[in-house]
Amino acid sequence: MQPEELVSTDSLALGAKELIIKTQNNSKFLLDMKKIVLTMVALLTASMTFAQNMAIFKAEEKMEEKDYKSASEIIDACIANPKTSKLALAYFMAGEIQTRVLNEEIGKAQNHQPLDTLLFNTALDKAVDYFTKSYQEDCKPDKKGRVKLEYADKFENGITPYPGYKRRMLDMLGYYAYSGGFANSNGRPQEAYKYFVKYMDMPKNPMFTKHESDSIYKKNAKSYDKIGYYAAMLAYQAKDYDDVIKYVDFALRDSTSMHDGYLMKMNALLEKGDTAKWVETSKQAIADMPEEVGNLTNLLKYYDSHKMTKEAEAMADELTRKSPDNKGAWYARGCVYMNSNYAEAHKAFAKAISLDKTFASAQFNQGVTYVNELIKQKDNFTTDRSKVDKYNADMAKAREYYRKAQPYFENALFLAPDKPSVWGYSLQNVYYNLQDGKQKEDMKNREADMKKVIDGSMSGQDFIAKYNIQLTDPQ
């Protein structure tokens, strides 16, 4: 090839320029194509998201047609699809569908028609779960970090108004009590317990503020106290002592269940080995239920068996200090001192009787305290009948204690005539030891008849009538 046939440098430069221009055009073309593709993807994604959100409205249509099965299937598929952007609304609609099912079952009950309790309970559980998830989704912040609750209160979905998930939850607050009642009446205590617990805990749902939760409990206190008692009772039967402790305080606020509540709580504490709380609970039971002397008796036995004299005295001081007008507190104080400080015991029982003269246990123990005083001094009394003067003088002193005890024992008889196991032997002993002087024959007769009362051949009422026993004030 001749040199002049070679491609000139100008031609090479021109070719390179054209190549650069073509390459730039190709890049621009590719970039434009990429933008078109991305736009199409975005449009497709938006279209898919729109389609999924439209499924919410489709479910709503089926709900309005009362085709709840189809509505549930559509909305559940919508919730499961990651393309759904309005999850809070979807969850709300899912809950709303279940409330329609609930309302139809409630309508049956109101019309005295058979109620499908399984359907009712299932729909209720689902509704609560869906509305709670609607709240949780509604709380999620937007791209700017803002939280705006759209579905908590009244809103419109298209032209259809809804009250919001919070209103729906408030409307359903009592439904779990019905579920528990259904299960309990059908002999399913554990299932009843589950639903009673759900009833008790529902005001603590995260969608309610603490103030709202407290207001719910306060407004419906009687109902929560009653259901709390049922829950504690069923937990006690199942030996679930932790849950007994959790719910039993509701029972303690209701006077009709207070006795059982304290019994369950104290036994549960003993089962858990928490004697410190058992002692504190016993003290509170004594203060709240002064008529229930068994609580005091058990506490005193505990103190006595553990040689806790100082603790018992401190308890008595605490009760009377905190509740100076509570007869049970003064009765407790009398019981603490009736075997040691007789003067203090007499004052305490006298105070209890002054607050309620029909307090049979206080009347009886006032009499017992006089007998205890006598027993304490028995070693100072002679039993040698050859020492006539000393013997007679000592017997006269002893009889004074029995004479002081007699009216209190007879008051106990008058107030509790059907409990001879309490006062029977004490009265027989008094009548036996007062057989002297002018009253000797009367006391002999009373002793003989009291034996009949004890063995059941004579009633306490008959004894009262025969000897004209009256409620007196010996002080």
How confident overall, as mean pLDDT? Answer: 87
List the secondary-structure elements in sequence, H or E.
Answer: HHHHEEHHHHHHHHHHHHHHHHH
Computed structural class: mainly alpha
Helix count, DSSP H or I runs of 4 or more residues? 21
The largest sheet, given as strand count, sense and whether it forms a barrel, is: 2 strands, antiparallel
Terminus-to-terminus distance: 152 Å
Outline, from the CA principal axes?
elongated
Q: What is the CA-based Rg, rounded?
A: 42 Å
Q: pLDDT under 50 segments (min length 5)? A: 1-24, 26-50
Helix content: over 70%
Beta content: under 5%
The main sheet orders its strands as: 1-2
What this model shows, in words?
The protein is an all-alpha fold. The chain is 73% helix and 1% strand. The chain has a two-stranded antiparallel ribbon. Mean pLDDT is 87; it is low at 1-24 and 26-50. It is elongated and about 115 Å long.
Topology:
Layout: H1 9-64, H2 68-80, H3 87-110, H4 117-138, E1 155-157, E2 160-162, H5 165-171, H6 175-185, H7 189-201, H8 210-219, H9 221-237, H10 241-252, H11 258-271, H12 275-288, H13 293-305, H14 309-322, H15 327-337, H16 342-355, H17 360-376, H18 388-415, H19 420-433, H20 440-455, H21 460-466
Antiparallel strand pairs: 1-2
